[in-house]
Amino acid sequence: xxxxxxxxxxxxxxxxxxxxxxxxxxxxxxxxxxxxxxxxxxxxxxxxxxxxxxxxxxxxxxxxxxxxxxxxxxxxxxxxxxxxxxxxxxxxxxxxxxxxxxxxxxxxxxxxxxxxxxxxxxxxxxxxxxxxxxxxxxxxxxxxxxxxxxxxxxxxxxxxxxxxxxxxxxxxxxxxxxxxxxxxxxxxxxxxxxxxxxxxxxxxxxxxxxxxxxxxxxxxxxxxxxxxxxxxxxxxxxxxxxxxxxxxxxxxxxxxxxxxxxxxxxxxxxxxxxxxxxxxxxxxxxxxxxxxxxxxxxxxxxxxxxxxxxxxxxxxxxxxxxxxxxxxxxxxxxxxxxxxxxxxxxxxxxxxxxxxxxxxxxxxxxxxxxxxxxxxxxxxxxxxxxxxxxxxxxxxxxxxxxxxxxxxxxxxxxxxxxxxxxxxxxxxxxxxxxxxxxxxxxxxxxxxxxxxxxxxxxxxxxxxxxxxxxxxxxxxxxxxxxxxxxxxxxxxxxxxxxxxxxxxxxxxxxxxxxxxxxxxxxxxxxxxxxxxxxxxxxxxxxxxxxxxxxxxxxxxxxxxxxxxxxxxxxxxxxxxxxxxxxxxxxxxxxxxxxxxxxxxxxxxxxxxxxxxxxxxxxxxxxxxxxxxxxxxxxxxxxxxxxxxxxxxxxxxxxxxxxxxxxxxxxxxxxxxxxxxxxxxxxxxxxxxxxxxxxxxxxxxxxxxxxxxxxxxxxxxxxxxxxxxxxxxxxxxxxxxxxxxxxxxxxxxxxxxxxxxxx
Length: 758
Description:
Radius of gyration: 29 Å
Helix content: 55-70%
Shape: flat
Largest sheet: 7 strands, mixed
Structural class: alpha+beta
């Protein structure tokens, strides 16, 4: 007891007496902190400062407030947005022939271009005072998704003007004169925009663009003015071949000091008419054979006035921050919308196809091998829809969640690839034979486009999600880094001392919370709901605490080297991502009114999320370079081992059975792939066959029973079976006709296109 009291007194003195604490703890820790965590580069600092933290901060800090998640509300369309989707979007779908766009025209037909311009499809994000729609992020996402259900090329053509580009940049940063001049033209479709960022030497590392703008004097409209001499070489620029106005990012320099004493001004964005002297719109690219416009632009010694800088001369050098903030919106809306459309299309068509396609005398949806892949499609689609809704909710709350949108971009585009891969496996020959009836082929071909644009997925996963998340979401690290960068050592130590005690308490709490949750199976963690999803909230809280604890020690031990340990930091980023995706799933279940027919899918998704989060965390500990510390962390995080095993076979079968029938659950999961009158494409064909076959299921059961009893021959064509059953009065004439019609539709649905020549 005496030793315990003495130890307690020493701790109290060390931490309670400020002068002693400053000398014995704060000063040495501060020196170590400055050594292991080098100052952020200007580019990294701007990326950190751009955008906001949102729900991901709750997940990263070890104790998420689930009531906060539920308080965000359910995303809803306004009456105006609903009317636009019901009228203009549905009309556009009737005008789309994707086989013609991709295989024959290599472009949208003129009437579709005109319709998009006339009806304001390029004005979704432009304010109403300029003739735009000012739609929500959720509506924007819904519109792009529905278009993508029939044509990726059409969807991309609409999404780009409403994503990163002149419209968004002008709305947020443009001068009054720029907005008054350009936004009405963009809204009406008179001006077609593109934005040139990527070049041969600057892809994912957009901050390294070599294109230049040199401050100089030159002639403009007959007068000598101060401006920029631009040189650029850009590629992969969507809409460039048809654009009339070019947004351009470049490095601005002032070697002659015409604007001041700063020579390297930094990345700047300008807006240039494409008919301006010297602007070259080059040849088209062929992005995986898709029909949307994509190409090059170049310029050599092109002079523009300073007033063409977006935001005016006062925004010179502020382009990187502008781009980072606008890129996050694009990552959170446009590309996830394409991925979610893939999920809705594959769920709708593959459940239907699995029901109507027969092999070995059975619907292929009854084979467990098919069910395994089909369950993944269904679960991934539920996850895609959930993440789409939560991410656009954040954007519509007027936050700029850069980490969340990076998570959405990476994981949702990868899931989009996964659902198409599984759908192609199940639909096989139906999926690979291109033609007007094929609803998978073009989406499958286009998937890598989403994977690569706006930051390649490898970069997004290995650097951005954890790199920004660990610093931005941590309650202390960014402030500590700022303290370490202060020139006044005394003031820096004082500020660091105030942060250090809180940081130590935070780390200790997360370590104990992680251990307690592991030992008790998270039973004592709080949950905002009761019922079958309650345990998932508790398990997520446990893994959140474990992530915060492991992150703290990783940053302490490796410091600045952690960002170079890309595989390790990617795994820690995966934990955060899985927790975010799980949060989205639980919120969608609540927003939909806790529908019981969704429960098999929700269980599957959540068990998968927890399994993958725990696996990523386990993998990080397994590869942690400091082995003694790794063993200690594992003892606190997984003292009884990793028991998150994912969904079992019984649940997999239940997920499939819940979707191999028409009903509200299937409708909720396929609503972005709508039915419409006059649709004669492959989606309508397979859906019509599915409905007809399902309605006649009792008749098929009657025939199977008769075959088992020996009343009907087994191995004969379907129409012969129906005729024999009618002759023996097993079915009546109306029932025979119902079966014949269902079989006719089935044959149409499983047929593929054929051509005289190619």
